[in-house]
Amino acid sequence: MAKDQKKQPRPKAETPKGFRDTFGADVTERKAMLDRIAGVYHSHGFDPLETSAVETVEALGKFLPDVDRPNAGVFAWQEEAVPGISGGGGGGSGDWLALRYDLTAPLARVAAQYRNDLPSPYRRFAMGPVWRNEKPGPGRFRQFYQCDADTVGSASVAADAEICAMLAEALEAVGIARGDYLVRINNRKVLNGVLEAADVSADQAEDVLRTIDKFDKVGRDGVLALLTTGRRDDSGAQIDGVGLSPDQAAPVLAFLTSKGADNAATLANLRAAVGGSDMGAEGVDELAQMAAMLAAMGVAEDRAVIDPSVVRGLGYYTGPVFEAELTFEILDDKGRKRQFGSVAGGGRYDGLVERFTGQKVPATGVSIGVDRLLAALRAKGLGGDAATGPVVVTVMDRDRMADYQAMAAELRAAGIRAEVYLGNPKNFGNQLKYADKRGAPVAIIQGADEAARGVVLLKNLPKGAMLAKNMSHDEWAQQPAQIEVAQERLAEMTQAMIRQISLSNSYIAKED
After folding, report:
1. pTM
2. Which runs of E-coded beta strand occur in 132-195?
3. Which domain holds residue 465?
4. Least C-beta-crowded within 10 Å: which of 228, 245, 387, 416?
5. Same structural domain, 277 and 395
């Protein structure tokens, strides 16, 4: 090597900005939650679907690249063009490709590509990572998990009602109790009918919709001011109004305040709010049908309810819209109580597949925010069991490694997660430190003396840690955290100790 040639610097061992690594217990906890949700979807006849992580930008449709910003919104790149290969499918044809930004756009492509092979309606669920090339922030990552369920090919609101029922069942399946959540339902057609009754022009519609979305923050009077002449915010700055007359604003306010004591009252108020709009009346009829179907499926109004305040993706959805809100309180970063909020949302989107086929293809679906729901379960103390690590079989004699491997195999055959310590066994303390770092509930110990007597030692690691922390050495010696058992009862007694640890953890959690 030439003396003047600089040595290459070592790469930094760090994740890219906006990304993160997920380790053992968190991965296991997420998988367990998704498995329970998948069980609900499967019971309703939905099939799993896995699509490619990479789609053509043309198929994604939402963020087409331009000359100045080819990566706007998505992680995109252009394939190198190869002579003789035409565009339309990647593979060196000069196409723009991108990581999927959600699970719905790939579904639309699949529904169009395999429309002659798939049953219609096609009911599928999908779970996996998606990528957004957006500015990261606290709790906002560029790669995250989504969990979707959709029905493609049915225009019946029975499909929407089923999605809402499944969403309620899924929340309960992962441990969210009734009374701690509510699926709230609205319909875009009702809102369109309100705009029609208010004689809102096309130029004003977007501003009106944006103002409606502020109802929870500024209240009735604030929305009225924003719809008409404007208002001053808390800082004293003047915010221009949309410019509607008081008569025009009246149907919008009637819509926003139409939530009644029950679904029947809400529906009656909505009929009054849409006036003579045929589209609005159609939307109210669809909500009434959904309410009746949900009741027939045993989903009462304490689980799913008609709520006009739900305003979602108004440029995207074409009919019923819904979201799941967790109603229990948590403490924010400043120690203030607040409701946990939304963990899922969706609705009817009848225009997405049409981009590929040129024909109307009705579709409806829901997406659960996986990280949000996991955070909610942890906030309610419903996270994974503390004793999630494997049982560790320690090594007292290098020459007896086959015996230790046999013990681990016996434990696994009995359904117990187990491993043999494969580091340097010279220092036994390091073996126990390893077991603690692995979150092991039990350590198996057998030296030459124990082997000669046909016994093994089972060490309760959580108990040992607790005793060492709270007791003197003499007290600890009188209450050892390990027991001696006959080797032929290894699996039986290990299982019993793990159950004891699990019960102890449950009791401690309740006490806390």
Report:
1. 0.83
2. 143-152, 181-187
3. 391-511
4. 245
5. no
